[in-house]
Amino acid sequence: MRLRDKVAIVTGGGSGFGRGIAELFAGEGAKVVVADINGAAARSCVEAIGSGRAVATTTDVTKRVDVDAMVAAAVEAFGGVDILVNNAGVTHKNQSLMTVTEDEFDRIYAVNVKSIYLTTLAVVPLMEKRGGGSIINTASTAGLRPRPGLTWYNGSKGAAITLTKSMAVELAPKNIRVNAINPVIGETGMLEQFMGVADTPENRAKFIAGIPLGRMSTPRDIANAALFLADPASAFVTGVAIEVDGGRCI
Question: Is residue 145 predicted with pLDDT exceeding 90?
Fold first, then answer.
C-alpha cells in the first residue's frame, strides 16, 4: 500500500474529486479525515471507506475556527497530519465578468484562496514535527489557460497555482512538498455552473471538443494524480502544477 501509516486530510471530501481522492487514499492504506461543509456528504464518504479508517468533519474552510477543529480532529483520531489536500472549491456560473455579484466574488476567493492560507497555518507545524509532509492544492486548467465566462474563478485558480509554487520554495527546508493539480472540466456537481448551460449530451460535446483525449475528467483521474503527489515515490517533486486535462492545455 502506497500510503500505509500516513494521515491525510481531504477538504471538499464529501463528493466529486474530493471523495474520489479520499476513497483512493484510504484504499492505499491512509487514515483519512473527510472534511466538507456538507456534513452528511462527509459522513457518507466515511461510511463507504469503513470505520476506523476515516473520520468526518463538517468544515467551512473559510473559517479559521472550523479549520483548526478539522486539524484537531486529525490529531485526536490519528495522531497527526502527513498529507493535506486542499480540494474544496466553488465557482460562479459561466457568465459575463460584469454580472458576477460581489458576494459571489468574495465567496470564490474565500473558498479557493483564503482556505489555502488557513489550512497551511494549521498543518505546517504538525508536518514539521513529523519530519515533513505533502500539501496538494486542487487548482484548474482555468488558472493556466483561462477562457471567457469564468474570469473571477479563473483568477482564484491562478492564485492557487502561484501560491503552490511560492509555498513549495518556502517550505522546502522543512521537507514539506507543495504541488497542485489542474483538472479540466469534470463530471462533478459543479459541471452545469462551469458550462453555463444545461448538462445535455449536446452541450457536453461542445466542451469535450476542446479536449484532445475526447472526454471530461473524472474523480478517479484526479485521485490518481493526487496519489502520486502524496506517495513517498514523488519525494523529489515539489512546486509543480500537474495538468490532468486530456491535453486541453496543449
Answer: yes
Write out the three cell numbers for 165: 509554487
**Helix, strand, or coil here: 199?**
coil
Q: What percent of the chain has pLDDT over 70?
A: 100
Helices 64-78 and 115-129: angle between axes, nearest 10 degrees: 30
Residues designated as active site: 153
CA atoms within 13 A on the CB side of 70: 36
Taking only the tens place, the pLDDT of each residue in 28-75 is 999 999 999 999 999 999 999 997 999 999 999 999 999 999 999 999
DSSP alpha helix (H) spans, 172-246: 191-195, 201-208, 219-230
**Cut 0.90: pTM above it:** yes
Alpha-carbon gap, residue 162 to 214, rounded angstroms: 29
C-alpha pair distances (Å), 172 with each of 71, 98, 113, 164: 21, 40, 21, 12
State the pLDDT at residue 190: 74
- In the chain the domains, ranked by start, together with CATH numbers, are 7-233 (3.40.50.720)
Task: Check if the beta carbon of residue 146 is closer than 8 Å to that of residue 114.
Answer: no
Helical segments of the chain, H only = 16-27, 39-49, 64-78, 102-109, 115-129, 151-171, 191-195, 201-208, 219-230
Q: Please state, in angstroms and rounded to a whole number, the distance separating the CA atoms of residues 68 and 23.
A: 23
Cβ distance 43 to 19 under 8 Å?
Answer: no
Confidence of residue 189 (pLDDT cuts 50, 70, 90): confident
